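JOB MANIFEST
job_type = single_chain_structure
chain_count = 1
residues = 291
[input]
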Amino acid sequence: MKKILIAILISLCIPSSVFAQNIAHSNLDGITITPVNDTSEGVETKITYKDGYIENIGPDYVALFVNGSLIKDSNVIIEENRALVPVRTVTENLGCEVKWKEETNEVEIYNNETIVNLKLGSKIAAVNNEKAEMDVAPKIYNNFTYVPVRFLADSLKFKVDYCDGKNLKITHIVPRLPQVIISNYDSYEAISKAEAVETVKKQLIEAYNLTYGEYVPWNENETYKNNGDDIRKAIYNLTVTEENDRFYTIPVVFDFWVDKYTGEVYVFYNGMTMAIYKFDPESKGALTFAG
């Protein structure tokens, strides 16, 4: 009986819309990004993934995010002011089935009740046997078929956003990096902004208790007197200031990102080299935000 009661209490602490959702986790934990803009001469511009893989990037690099994960070596192509993306990489990450017909140079994409037929070199495609035209014809690059992202998203009912990395008033995941963001969360439910704030609050209080001792809520008439007062005040003022397809942004000292579909909390450091890592309230340096 006691175990059952504990399980019930735990479940009540977890947002119902997140609990037990079977969604792929974002791969952003442990990634560092040194973009081309705003770097000193001689600095190597690159992306380093948690597994140690390094992707060197240049002035023409455009990042590809699919459901909140950064795709390695996506090699987004910009042609006639249109972004082309690797069709198999995108669609399979979003649960579609892809077939390549070598004898006719055709690609078939299956997504629930939608079938898209593409032919290399041809702007004419078919969506459920209805003729459709693309602005740019599919092409082969590095043994991958590339297709205009807007056509792909419109045909398969995906959401797509583009940000040049400079205009941060529009949807973006990271700043200072041109990016294409593709997503489809139709079968998942996002947590609310209030749930995201509560998640960060609980983790910050846990970290505070381990670092400074018993947490006492901030009083708006207080002034800084002791170590940790900045964290107490930050907890008092927690609010969602931005969001994209996958994350809510809550400024603390650095930005905290809350995954809308798993409830996981990340920290984003926007230095010359940007860094993203999961927040661990139990780690010794959890509340150390050194630049």
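[summary]
Residues 193-278 form one domain.
Helices lie at 2-13, 87-93, 149-156, 193-212, 229-236.
exit_status = 0
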